[in-house]
Amino acid sequence: MIELRNIAKSFGDKEVLRNISATFEPGKTSLVIGTSGSGKTVLMKCMVGLFEVDSGGVFYNNENFSKMNINERKAIRKEIGMLFQGNALFDSMTVEENVIFPLNMFTDMSEKEKKDRVNFCLERVNLKGANKLYPSEISGGMMKRVGIARAIVQNPKYLFCDEPNSGLDPQTSIVIDKLIQEITQEYNITTFVNTHDMNSVMQIGDYILYMFEGEKHWEGTSKDLMTAKNERLENFIFSSEFLKEARKHYVK
Amino acid sequence: MAYFYALTVFETGNYMNLFYHFGKYILLLKSLFVKPEKVSIYWRETIRQMNEIGIGSLGIVAIISVFIGAVTTVQTAYQLISPLIARSVIGTIVSDSTILELAPTITCLVLAGKIGSSVASELGSMRITEQIDALEIMGVNTPSYLIGPKIIAAVLIIPCLIIIAAFLGIYGGVLAGSLTGILTPEEFSIGARDSFRTLNLILCMVKAVTFAFIITSVSAYQGYFTDGGSLEVGQSSTRAVVFSCILILFADYLLAELLL
């Protein structure tokens, strides 16, 4: 379980996050939504320690990550998998080398065990046979799946996904969303997803947190979202006439 | 460019900026000294870097060295043309200046351009594409893994390149001397052996190690802290080359003062 307690973060005079508290439970896919510049990515980077919070704390199973030293953080980070917006695959390595990298670095598994684990993860994300390809030789959707395979290769307890659907067509987006949801439930992972994608919100959002100008503005489930009485949230989610009509029919 | 930058810094009184970068550079170097996550991976990476820096630069180092040796011979002969000076003196001057200055300094200035820009742009690209963040999230000590092997590889392999450069520089001198009829290889050899001192070779190696460290650490600093997009990667790469060259020349003078 990950808990945020009154997190605040500023860059110079600009307050990017203000007093954010939330709880993300294992086995559930928690989504953070909001307009560009609302602080979603900064929040995620604070949670994994790429940015330091100014006040408050990020708690992993009641242990304050924000106050930990480097070695304690390393121990937690070995339980974290992360899928980056731009995939962050190592260009000079093949798909297999990308996925096997954390195992080479942190485990004493034999070569055969490592290969088996990599093949299992690649099969799990439907990338069987792509082992020897380089990131430049595969599509955007495949890169995302390699990113997911690399993120889960060490059996993480926590999975962070920064806009997993950016740059993907709607069909591939749904494949990625379903994959994230299945993996979350299958391995009881605490999954945290930043997204703009409304399909994802409706499809996989067990818990949704809406951010506006660095503050938590609303929280609930995807069902609550359809009936929420919050003007800003409504304007964000149901921005087109088509979606407004669809919502009216749903409420009726 | 660095001169104008320094001038601007002093004119505007923004001294703190220099101290800020120097402090950040020292802290980056300090973060290299941690226990590697897995020694075998670091070792493999060091060997890969040695191959890239060493073998990858051999061609350009060879061409430059031969020509510099040849040009030095021709120009020294042009300046020393007198029946009172033995022709073997040309051999003395060419071999001494090659070992003391031309091989380590000119070669490292060229390597600053080749290796420095490559290191800065590699790390800069990794930074802007979040590859460094990905390594951090995995729990890898990124300065130690990404910069450490580069510095070790450069410090080990650049002195070897300098030895080759010195040998080829002297050979270029001998070749130019005999092809143009300025002096015979025997005369060149007499002059070179008469003046040879071990201290020259030691200074050459001290310079090589110091310059190797400067090239990789300064370039890595510029690349590692790149912020922005591809334009900034280019700027980091340019800064890496400029600052490496300036610091090489500064260290060159300092070492000559201290060791000679």
Question: Can you lay out the helices and strands and say which pair or pack?
Answer:
The complex is a heterodimer of chains A (252) and B (260).
Chain A: E1 2-11, E2 14-24, E3 29-34, H1 40-48, E4 55-60, E5 63-64, H2 70-77, E6 80-83, H3 95-106, H4 111-124, H5 140-152, E7 158-162, H6 170-186, E8 190-195, H7 198-204, E9 207-212, E10 215-220, H8 222-227, H9 231-237, H10 241-251
Helix pairs in contact in A: 3-4, 3-5, 4-5, 5-6, 6-7
Chain B: H1 2-11, H2 15-30, H3 39-79, H4 88-128, H5 131-138, H6 142-180, H7 185-195, H8 198-224, H9 230-259
Helix pairs in contact in B: 3-4, 3-6, 4-6, 4-7, 4-8, 4-9, 6-8, 8-9
Question: Can you walk me through this structure?
Answer:
- The complex is a heterodimer of chains A (252) and B (260).
- Chain A is α/β, with parallel strands linked by helices and 252 residues long.
- Chain A has helices spanning 40-48, 70-77, 95-106, 111-124, 140-152, 170-186, 198-204, 222-227, 231-237, 241-251; strands at residues 2-11, 14-24, 29-34, 55-60, 63-64, 80-83, 158-162, 190-195, 207-212, 215-220.
- In chain A, the strands form two sheets. A six-stranded mixed β-sheet of chain A has the order 6-7-8-3-9-10, sandwiched between helices. A four-stranded antiparallel β-sheet of chain A has the order 2-1-4-5, with helices on one face.
- In chain A, helix 3 (95-106) runs parallel beside helix 5, helix 4 (111-124) packs across helix 5 and helix 6 packs parallel to helix 7.
- Chain A is globular.
- Chain B has 260 residues and is mostly helical.
- Chain B has one domain.
- Chain B contains nine helices and no strands.
- Chain B has helices spanning 2-11, 15-30, 39-79, 88-128, 131-138, 142-180, 185-195, 198-224, 230-259.
- The mean pLDDT of chain B is 91.
- The A-B interface holds A 45, 48-50, 73-75, 77-78, 80, 82, 84-86, 88-91, 101-102, 104-106, 160 and B 37-38, 41, 129-131, 133-134, 136-140.
